């Protein structure tokens, strides 16, 4: 895919990256000085505050709108059963941030509905939740925010709070894009079980996050590693890097079946600027079992 002077190439694979000797050495260096246990515990206690400060500092400027999601996840546009075409589906964006995923989807939906020559896309009612109250305030302040199409609320998705806002078994789709990596691994199972409870039988989780041995993981210096594949950034937020089999097991043990689950090796080349950025993400689709 070309974008201006950039060339972006994606390769999907279930094989983990093979590390060079230099990269192995970088990971070994990280182990020489780990985050002390008391500091790691404080990062957990202060997690919401760190994300609130992040959004206070960056407001709506940090992330670009995620128009790519409908390319990677056609389920966000397609209506799988024509008999249900007039029935509004429901979608929850977990970790909505300032709305960089949900508002492009709302715009797409509005364009389709306003064009009589096009078959309407699947009509969604959107829920959007985030750990940060400040992020939710930004979503509600967006000119596209309309309670007839979207409800945004603050909650900790690792707890039962989300069930105060959304009935069990009522969702068609949950998106979790670069969200689970910000949560402590001890709470991953609780998050996935919450999504299972919210989804209808056959409902989908659309997942994308940081993959094992991503460039960002290899760049961490000694003093930033909390535990295996878990790191703290300079601003106090945390990031986890996922293995393919680990994510598959996480979902299957909570009652999902794996539709797709693979590493995305993305290489962004800008010859004019002399930029060559290799990234590794993990992308999957998981369906709640019907029996």
TrEMBL record:
Coiled-coil regions, chain positions: none
GO CC entries: cytoplasm; nucleus
InterPro entries for the chain: METTL2/6/8-like, SAM-dependent_MTases_sf
GO biological process: tRNA methylation
Keywords attached to this entry: Cytoplasm, Methyltransferase, Nucleus, Transferase, tRNA processing
GO molecular function, one term: tRNA (cytidine-3-)-methyltransferase activity
Location(s), subcellular: Cytoplasm; Nucleus
Gene3D superfamilies to which the protein is assigned, alphabetical: Vaccinia Virus protein VP39 (3.40.50.150)
SUPFAM superfamilies named among the record's database cross-references: S-adenosyl-L-methionine-dependent methyltransferases (SSF53335)
Job of this protein: S-adenosyl-L-methionine-dependent methyltransferase that mediates N(3)-methylcytidine modification of residue 32 of the tRNA anticodon loop of tRNA(Ser), including tRNA(Ser)(UGA) and tRNA(Ser)(GCU). Interaction with SARS1/SerRS is required for N(3)-methylcytidine methylation.
Family statement drawn from the similarity comment of this UniProt entry: Belongs to the methyltransferase superfamily. METL family.
Oligomer and partners: Monomer. Interacts with SARS1/SerRS; interaction is mediated via tRNA(Ser) and is required for N(3)-methylcytidine methylation.
Stated name of the protein: tRNA N(3)-methylcytidine methyltransferase
């Amino acid at each position: 895919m070309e974008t201006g002077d950039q060339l972006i190439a994606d390769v999907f694979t279930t094989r983990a990256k093979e590390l060079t000797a230099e990269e192995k050495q970088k990971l070994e260096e990280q182990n020489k000085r780990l985050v002390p246990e008391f500091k790691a515990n404080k990062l957990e206690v202060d997690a919401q505050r760190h994300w609130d400060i992040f959004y206070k500092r960056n407001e709506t400027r940090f992330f670009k709108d995620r128009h790519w999601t409908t390319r990677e996840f056609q389920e966000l546009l397609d209506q799988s059963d024509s008999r249900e075409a007039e029935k509004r589906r429901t979608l929850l964006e977990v970790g909505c941030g300032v709305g960089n995923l949900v508002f492009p989807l709302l715009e797409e939906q509005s364009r389709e509905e306003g064009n009589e020559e096009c078959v309407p896309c699947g009509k969604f009612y959107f829920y959007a939740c985030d750990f940060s109250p400040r992020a939710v305030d930004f979503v509600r302040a967006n000119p596209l925010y309309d309670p007839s199409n979207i409800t945004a609320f603050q909650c900790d998705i690792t707890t039962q709070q989300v069930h105060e806002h959304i009935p069990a078994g009522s969702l068609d789709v949950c998106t979790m894009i670069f969200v689970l990596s910000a949560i402590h691994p001890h709470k991953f199972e609780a998050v996935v079980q919450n999504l299972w409870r919210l989804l209808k039988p056959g409902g989908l989780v659309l997942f994308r996050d940081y993959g094992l041995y991503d460039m960002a993981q290899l760049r961490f210096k000694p003093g930033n590693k909390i535990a295996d594949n878990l790191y703290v950034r300079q601003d106090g937020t945390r990031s986890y890097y996922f293995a393919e089999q680990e994510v598959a097991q996480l979902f299957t043990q909570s009652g999902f079946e794996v539709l797709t689950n693979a590493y995305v090796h993305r290489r962004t080349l800008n010859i004019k600027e002399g930029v060559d950025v290799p990234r590794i993400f993990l992308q999957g689709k998981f369906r709640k079992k019907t029996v």
